[in-house]
Amino acid sequence: MARDEPGLATILREWGRIGCIGFGGPPTHIALLRELCVERRRWLDPAEFEDAIAACNLLPGPASTQLSIYCAWRLRGVAGGVVGGLAFIVPGLVLILALSAVFLANAPPAWIRGAAAGAGAGVAAVAVQAGLSLVPASRARARSLLRWAGYVVLGGVAAATIGPWLVLVLLGCGLTEVALRNVTSIAALPVFAAPTAGLGALAWVAFKVGALSYGGGFVIVPLMQGDAVHRDHWLTDGQFLNAVALGQVTPGPVVHTVAAVGYAAAGVGGGLFAAAIAFSPSFAFVLGGGRWFGVLRANAQARAFLDGAGPSAIGAILGSAVPLAAALGAWWQYVLLGVAAAALLLLRRSVVLTLVGLGVVGALLAATHAVGVT
Asked: In b/e form, how buried is each residue of 334-373, taking b as 16+ CB within 10 angstroms?
């Protein structure tokens, strides 16, 4: 049980602090929430916190966001969950919209374009690093390494070739694993008609990100790229790389990237609209079903589905590196991609520091006219 329950003002302050300093993605968010709720304030006991992490990983959407909502909900009910979730999300959302206005503008200064191109050059390496970091734990859970490898390959090929339809591959792999384990009841696969224009199309992209994505936060990249760049033309390939880089270097959940895509589609209102659609499922899952998290964690169907969809999502993250690298337009960006790969995969440097460093290099190259930036 929670001890010494905090008021809403305390939740607003503490969750807002994590939203402001939470650079580095889910591992950082989880560590900060554990330090606050378990170690320092002792609002939650360690076992409950670990169970919450496991349950959130069984849900689609951004797991660390769901964990932040759950912890606040556990302390102050629905009001706490709403306040804590928004406090965690809003700081990074405001920052990424402000940065989108600068980096996705029609005619930014050369040094801005250079910074964006430099940071964007490293995004494919970030995808590989993110995917590889998920492999050991996922492989250890696999009942069949052959099936696990098959799901990874399917996700990778889908992300590299048919990005907009990746969600069907993720769902299909999950349902296949459920069927192969002979679970008595198999969830029905809903058929969605994807809107093809306007706010309906933006809502569909955001909904896929928030309600139909499994695995690490980076799996949202292939879910968005085909629609945002090739179908709806909200962004060029280079601008999409910039949007992904912005999602990596801002605090809070990586899902904030969808706000940059929304900004490109329809300005600030589009960014807020896309973020609202993408994050709403997380609030619904936790506020409506938090009391059953223990049951969810023990549910054989949920675990079987994740054991199929999860490896496929890892493959999708790895496969997304192919179109991301293909989107680079200048020779010097490929050089920076090699630098990023060495920094992230060999030297184990921080994603945020690596992308910021590449951005600084790109800005300097453009400002000194050492390279041309389109």
From this structure: eebbebbbebbeeeeeebbebbbbbbebbbebbeeeebeb
